[in-house]
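Amino Acid Chain and Its Fold in Token Form
===========================================
Scope: a single protein chain, as residues and as a discrete description of its fold.
Amino acid sequence: labelled as such and written in the usual single-letter residue code.
Position: the record begins directly beneath this header, with no further notes in between.
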Amino acid sequence: MDELESSGEMTIKQLSISLELDQSTLSRTADELFKSGLVERSEKQKDRRYTNLRLTEQGRKISGSINSIWNNVYIDIFKFIPGDKHSSVIESFKLFAAALRKNHERRV
């Protein structure tokens, strides 16, 4: 849901590439999100074989709630790290995130 929230809308194929998931698996998940009212579908006008997915208002609210919960978890975890080490931990996460992006770009 986070990927759809940040991009606005994507096809199943685009989303599967971005998340590195099998299209059929993601398609089943999208069906469930659609049935739950969290995702809506729209056909691309130029090519009806491709369907865009985007979050509904309810989907955006739930995605925001999930992000808020995880932000609070991270804040709580950081309380167990000495304050003078926070910048080192953040720098390490930035390096790790950059490495993940490069690895993903290499594979796509």
In short: The mean pLDDT is 90.
